[in-house]
Amino acid sequence: MLDARNSVVLILGLALAILVSACGDPDAVRLGAILSIEDASGGQTLEGAAIRDGMVLAAREINSGQGIRGRKLVLDFRDCGSDPARARDLWAEMTAKGEPAAVIVARSHVALGLRPLAEAAEVPLLGVVTSAPELTANATWTFRYWPRPEDELGPIVDHVRVLGVETLGVWRVDSVLGRVMLDHLRRTLEPEGRRVLDWPFPMNAMEFSAPPTGLADTDGVLVVGLPGQHPPLYEALVRDEYGGVRLGLTSSAHPLYLTMPQFQGLQVSTTRIYSPRADRAASLKAGYEAMTGEAFTHFTAIGYDAVMLLAATLERNGLGAESLRNGLAGGFVFPGVFGDVVSTKGSHEWTFPLVPAHIENGRLVYHER
């Protein structure tokens, strides 16, 4: 008998095989995805497989109905391993057999590397799990569905103010993500008289024996890392008996982390899809978890929503690349898993609401401030 983990691999693997095998169908609508599924050590990243699985869920739902304008939807996945150069090679492979209707990409440094290719080829590019502001600046064919730095950090700034943090340490990955978050915190908090100190670490680092020298002089620390880096980073803080306020971004509130000792007491920015009162996500979450035995996460949700948004726009505006681009940029209301996405004409990025919470006894406690 299959256990839950093997069951999800089989169920979604079979669905994925069916979806990808149809890529040769000339009448099918093809969506590409360049994700970071496998990390440098050969394991799976926290978000890559979840985004993929959410996309598969959406495609299965679409194809169980009328498809998109009567055509089947197929997904063409590529794993770049978080390497921008590899992602560009995969783009060339993917588009060599005919341009997809759109390409979904995750992680800021990967998305930024693909933007020039998408703009030149006039293929819509949709970034998820990517915060770099420059991704959509003056873009024609590039879009983003993910919280901006100011959205992600809004609840963090709320924690800092309410808890009286005067000197904030930012222990961050040395990448686009880390630099963007640091810059926004400095612009927001330093005019209030608060200090923001910077401690970068390499993007491929996975072992952290101790926090940076000088962190003891802070009364709060925000960890900004790739999702898989969070457990060892917070473990180092606990091991060092750091006594200040510990803060974390949305990835720190991942269901896999809630019961880990180093995450208890963490003040986080998170989405309400984890709340029992999240009506819109409830049925999708329950069905996914019953089928797979795996946690439905905000990464699964964004994969699902990204496909449903693109499919709805193609259905409404037509199947051509220009029709899709015009539909995405033309203003719309989309009933997403996170809540309604209301886009004004000309906008190339859409967010979803984030709220302050903390982790206590293995669960998220939302703050009603």
Q: Would you mind describing this structure in some detail?
A:
The strands form three sheets. The protein has a seven-stranded mixed beta sheet with strand order 7-6-8-9-10-14-15, with helices on both faces. The chain has a six-stranded parallel beta sheet with strand order 2-1-3-4-5-13, sandwiched between helices. Strands 11-12 form a two-stranded antiparallel ribbon. The protein has helices at residues 4-21, 48-63, 84-96, 108-121, 149-162, 176-189, 230-239, 279-292, 298-317, 321-329; strands at 29-35, 73-79, 102-106, 125-128, 142-145, 167-173, 195-201, 220-224, 245-248, 267-270, 332-336, 339-343, 349-350, 355-360, 363-366. It has two domains: 4-146 and 279-350, Rossmann fold, CATH 3.40.50; 149-274 and 355-366, 3-Layer(aba) Sandwich (Rossmann fold), CATH 3.40.50.2300. The chain has 369 residues and is an alpha/beta fold. The model is unreliable at 1-11 (pLDDT under 50).
Topology, element by element:
Elements: H1 4-21, E1 29-35, H2 48-63, E2 73-79, H3 84-96, E3 102-106, H4 108-121, E4 125-128, E5 142-145, H5 149-162, E6 167-173, H6 176-189, E7 195-201, E8 220-224, H7 230-239, E9 245-248, E10 267-270, H8 279-292, H9 298-317, H10 321-329, E11 332-336, E12 339-343, E13 349-350, E14 355-360, E15 363-366
Parallel strand pairs: 1-2, 1-3, 3-4, 4-5, 5-13, 6-7, 6-8, 8-9, 9-10
Antiparallel strand pairs: 10-14, 11-12, 14-15
Helix pairs in contact: 1-2, 2-9, 3-4, 5-6, 9-10
